[in-house]
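Researcher: Please predict.
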Amino acid sequence: MCGRVALKVRADGSVLSAYTAITPCSCGNHVGIHRQCPWAVSVKAFDYVEICTESAEKHPKSAIQVRNKHIVDRSDFIVFWIERESGGAYRTMQYAKKYGKEMINLAVQAE
């Protein structure tokens, strides 16, 4: 989903830079991405992509939330798609609000 949003922002001629962070490859053979990684296609949509090495040190169930906080900490403006008040994306949005980040929830805009 976020790759599609980044491509739409670029198509609309925005001057915003699109940034994301990914968790290390789950194949366990390396830190990075290769053609078989689920991230391999979507990362092309972004101007900047980081591998969040902090998430590699965490249990797989908590690695995504570590990565999400990393993205919030490094971003000036955050785009969300949140339809319910639970789950990891919702917790990330609450974290972003706590730190005064500018954001938009596209799910609310679509209603």
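Model: Confidence is low (pLDDT under 50) at residues 29-34.
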